[in-house]
Amino acid sequence: MRHPQLLICAFDDWLAKQLATLAADSGWLLKESRQTGACLAMLVPPRPTVVVAQLDPRSDTTNPLAFLADIHRIAPDAATVVVSDSKLNDDDRAHWTALAFDLGARYVTFPPLFRQNLEDIVSGLMASRIRADTR
After folding, report:
1. Residue 33, class by beta-carbon neighbours within 10 Å (0-12 exposed, 13-18 middle, 19+ buried)?
2. Interval 13-68: pLDDT, tens
3. Nearest CA to 70 among 9, 25, 111?
């Protein structure tokens, strides 16, 4: 089996800090980047992967939906968790969530974010990716 990796694509190091202990205790590689191109490059070669991507639906600098589609295109077996800090009304939140699911996200989360919730989501997704890789 190829070594599992947890890939954090975020604006800052908050998400990586929240998940570092889980990754270390589980023996996963923890990789992080603030640049979309670097995140995409870390998806190759294929291995059991969970991507935690902090995306802003209102971003002027990147197209978050294109980035999400690229993740799914490059690594269709990677499980992607979208984390958004954006303050969205209920209709916009539902629309954003539906688009993210359509583009391959397995989970979409909004504040409040708690370490235990993130760890539960990531560990469950990683377990499914590892099982799939060993078949």
Report:
1. middle
2. 999 999 999 999 999 999 999 999 999 999 999 999 999 999 988 776 678 999 99
3. 9
Cα Rg of the chain (Å, integer): 14
Of 17, 75, 79, 5, which is closest to residue 46 (Cα–Cα)?
75
What's the whole-model pTM score? 0.94
Separation CA 38–CA 32 (nearest Å): 9
Domains and CATH numbers, the chain: 5-85+98-110+123-133 (3.40.50.2300)
The three-class DSSP label of residue 7 is: strand
Whether residue 53 contacts residue 19, with contact meaning beta carbons closer than 8 Å, is answered with no
HEC sequence for 86-102? CCCCHHHHHHHHHHHHH
Q: Which residue has the tokens 């979208």?
A: 82
